[in-house]
Design goal:
Radius of gyration of chain B: 31 Å
Largest sheet of chain B: 5 strands, mixed
Number of strands of chain B: 11
Family (chain A): Belongs to the DAD/OST2 family.
Organism (chain A): Corchorus olitorius
Radius of gyration of chain A: 19 Å
Shape of chain A: flat
Pathway (chain A): Protein modification; protein glycosylation
InterPro entries (chain A): DAD/Ost2 (IPR003038)
Number of strands of chain A: 0
Strand content of chain B: 5-15%
Helix content of chain B: 55-70%
Subcellular location (chain A): Endoplasmic reticulum membrane
Oligomer: heterodimer
Chain lengths: 116, 687
């Protein structure tokens, strides 16, 4: 495998990915940003845990799972409101958002209980 | 996806016809479900009718006691309950070591009924919790199967679950154990999972996690769910059936479910720390990788083919990395499942469902998990195969309805063709045979419910030539303890009777069925296996006042303490090595007749069981062991008999006080000589 050809491929792939992502609607991009932020927050906490230790394990667990849960739920919302996903035609975006809010409420109620 | 939208048919006459049929079908299936609920409830009442409304067996007595505490003291005291009346002097933290689902459910039902001014006792509520929840479980089965196959199959499955004997055995009225509510929770969780899978709605995903929470609350068997669902997800991914709905059904369940499980005190950090939960986390990671790959694929597929090729290379790399993971996960899961008998049933049900898989494409995502759900309940019997195959024509037509929504005119043709496939006589005979088989199955289930599974085991009956005998000795003994001993007295017995003693006699026990401390059990086992003086010292050091033994030699009750005795020796010897099992065996044989070893004939269990036994028939014939006992005439030096029940099944002894022991020292030396083997043959100290 030639090195130059593979790097060219990677470049082409990068370009096509970028152009494909540029075509995404703005509301999906906002959700992506939100997901990215949540994952980033989770990573910070994991790094902090690795350095300082996981002593109040409740707090660590609820902090990380809160971020992961937020990210996962946002991904679900993104899947549902994406117009290109034909299988979610019968779920209106408003309905999807209401479900998202409900699920988040339950998640954070549980987390507040678990904080310790 | 499963929601049949048959009303969108184009032809108006067909439409009205269809909606009318749907309406009739809806009302009819509602009433059928109602009847199935009544059936599920009433088939479990044989124990109440044949015996009485009592709690059964051992563990239910503990649950009953906890429920009593909950209704008296409230929820906060329940969570903080440190029970000082068991495991004396250690005590037991009950609030943090029980699965609270069953107790809270029954407590809530009791509280609700009382607030409506229906004054039921806690015991009544506890007795009828299991039958009520088996009705719920059969309705949940209807929902589950309807989601997978359609209403007809759902009704059949619900009817089968309502009367499947293996489920009845765990949920008759009075069997107040965790499974009573957990089976319902299990099925309902699987239903909501499949519902989420079919609709892709976060709302159902939330409900699913809450149902899973209820399952975690009620039974340790929740690990089945948290291993089976990842297995299904993995199977879907491996067979290329990944969809966004799968992600919505699975990912929120893992996060929310783990957090909710960690809320239950008995699970706590185990929800993230122990290996039986790791499979779900691994699959959680895998599904994210897969979702990402699918997303990239979706973006790029209209783009240049060359880019897609490079992508495939990267995907291949990724699979290479993940390869070892797959095998790890499957090993994890199979070991989890091997614990239950479910696996055998599971494969059988898969075999039966295979023909269906080929015909339905979008629905068989739920197919396997329904099979697993039913395997959990042992609901899938060979009879079921017959029963559902009987149901198949109607089901097939329903399937066709679904598939041919757009062109309903072809439906009639297709049906005609199908009908012509078999000769009329053959199908009629086959149907009749199947109906007969189903009827026999119903008869069998009712027989099993009435005869095999309804005995409460604290009240025994026997049929003999002179009629029915009832042995109510256990409650007689516990009642005696309750009324004739001091409220703080400690009662020692083998651990089997611990729950019953605390619940029925309300006396402190040394060990009970929650066998959490082996040393403590070994101490009691050692005391039972020791000679009288050593046993007295052990019991006295534990502040024991009464010793309770169960003895079946008079009436032939085989699960008595003499038959369990070798376990006391083994467990005791495991911690205290001076107790050796061979000392109690003659040439490897366990016997209590004249050939028995002297260690056996002098140990406390032998003495407490057979004390004065010879007075009953003059020979001392043990009807369980079918032999005459070895040592017939002896006196007790450190214990005195205070109560023996009507059929001698429970015998209660009191420890003699220390000052009596000192005064009796001279006596003891006398009795020692009299109880020597030569002395026995000469004279009976009781005459």
């Amino acid at each position: 495998m030639g090195k130059s050809s593979s790097s060219k491929d990677a470049q082409a792939l990068f370009h096509s990915l970028r152009s494909a992502y540029a075509a995404t609607p703005v509301n999906l991009k906002i959700i992506d940003l939100y997901v990215g932020f949540a994952v980033f927050t989770a990573l910070i906490q994991v790094v902090y845990m690795a350095i300082v230790g996981s002593f109040p394990f409740n707090s660590f667990l609820s902090g990380v799972l809160s971020c992961v849960g937020t990210a996962v739920l946002a991904v679900c919302l993104r899947i549902q409101v994406n117009k290109e996903n034909k299988e979610f035609k019968d779920i209106a975006p408003e309905r999807a958002f209401a479900d998202f809010v409900l699920c988040n409420l339950v998640l954070h109620l549980v987390i507040m209980n678990f904080l310790g | 996806m499963a929601a049949p939208e048959t009303s969108t048919a184009a032809v108006p006459t067909l439409m009205t016809n269809n909606s009318l049929r749907n309406a009739f079908g809806g009302v009819l299936s509602f009433f059928i479900l109602l009847l199935i609920g009544v059936l599920a409830f009433s088939i479990r009442l044989f124990s109440v009718i044949k015996y009485e409304s009592v709690i059964h067996e051992f563990d239910p007595y503990f649950n009953y006691r906890v429920t009593q505490f909950l209704t008296k003291k409230g929820i906060y005291d329940f969570w903080n309950w440190f029970d000082d009346r068991t495991w004396y002097p250690l005590g037991r933290v009950i609030g943090g070591t029980v699965y609270p689902g069953l107790t809270l459910t029954a407590g809530t039902i009791w509280w609700f009924l009382n607030s409506l001014n229906i004054p039921l006792s806690v015991e009544t509520v506890c007795v009828f919790t299991a039958p009520i929840f088996s009705a719920f479980a059969s309705w949940a089965t209807y929902l589950l199967t309807k989601e997978v196959k359609g209403a007809g199959a759902g009704l059949t499955a619900a009817a089968l679950l309502a009367m499947v004997p293996s489920y009845i055995s765990r949920s008759v009225a009075g069997s107040y154990d965790n499974e009573a509510v957990a089976i319902f929770a299990l099925i309902f969780t699987f239903y909501l999972y499949i519902k989420t899978l079919n609709t892709g709605s976060l709302f159902y995903a939330t409900l699913n996690s809450i149902a899973y929470f209820y399952m975690v609350c009620s039974w340790g068997g929740y690990t089945f769910i948290i291993n089976l669902i990842p297995m299904h997800v993995l199977l879907c991914i491996v067979t290329g059936r990944y969809s966004s709905r799968l992600y919505i059904a699975y990912a929120p369940l893992v996060v929310l479910g783990t957090l909710l499980a960690a809320l239950v005190p008995v699970v706590g950090f185990n929800a993230v720390m122990t290996s039986e939960h790791f499979a779900s986390f691994l699959v959680f990671i895998v599904i994210h990788v897969v979702a990402f790959v699918y997303y990239i694929k979706g973006i790029l597929s209209p783009k240049m083919f060359k880019v897609a090729v490079t992508l495939v290379v990267s995907v291949g790399l990724c699979k290479l990395i993940c390869g070892p993971l797959y095998s790890d996960i499957s090993a994890c899961i199979t070991s989890g499942i091997a614990l239950s008998q479910a696996f055998d049933v599971f494969t059988r049900s898969i075999k039966y469902q295979l023909p269906g898989v080929s015909s339905t494409n979008e629905l068989d995502a739920g197919e396997t998990s329904s099979a697993t759900a039913e395997a959990q309940n042992d609901a899938v019997k060979t009879e079921k195969t017959e029963e559902t195959s009987k149901d198949r024509p109607s089901r097939k037509s329903k399937k066709k309805e679904k598939e041919q929504v757009e062109k309903p005119s072809t439906k009639a043709k297709a049906e005609k063709k199908r009908l012509l496939a078999l000769p009329l006589e053959a199908s009629v005979i086959a149907l009749l045979l199947l109906i007969m088989l189903g009827a026999f199955y119903v008869v069998h289930c009712v027989w099993a419910a009435a005869e095999a599974y309804s005995a409460p085991s604290i009240v025994l009956t026997s049929h003999s030539h002179d009629g029915l005998h009832v042995f109510d000795d256990f409650r007689e003994a516990y009642g005696w303890l309750r009324h004739n001993t001091d409220v703080d007295d400690k009662v020692a017995s083998w651990w089997d009777y611990g729950y019953q003693t605390t619940a029925m006699a309300n006396r402190t026990v040394i060990v009970d069925n929650n066998t959490w401390n082996n040393t403590h059990i070994a101490t009691v086992g050692t005391a039972m296996s020791s000679p009288e003086k050593a046993a007295w010292e052990i019991f006295h050091s534990l502040d024991v006042k009464y010793v309770l033994v169960v003895f079946g030699g008079l009436v032939g009750y085989p699960s008595d303490d003499i038959n369990k005795f070798l376990w006391m020796v083994r467990i005791g010897g495991g911690v205290f090595p001076h107790i050796k099992e061979p000392d109690y065996l003659r040439d490897g044989q366990y016997r209590i007749d004249s050939q028995a070893t002297s260690t056996m004939l002098n140990c406390l269990m032998y003495k407490l069981s057979y004390y004065r036994f010879v007075e009953t028939d003059g020979k001392g014939f043990d009807r369980v062991r079918r032999t005459e006992i070895g040592k017939k005439y002896f006196k007790l030096t450190h214990f005195e008999e205070v109560f023996t029940t009507h059929h001698w099944m429970v015998r209660i002894y009191k420890l003699k006080l220390p000052k009596n022991r000192i005064r009796g020292k001279t006596k003891k030396s006398k009795s020692k000589t009299s109880s020597k083997r030569s002395g026995i043959t000469k004279k009976n100290p009781w005459h």
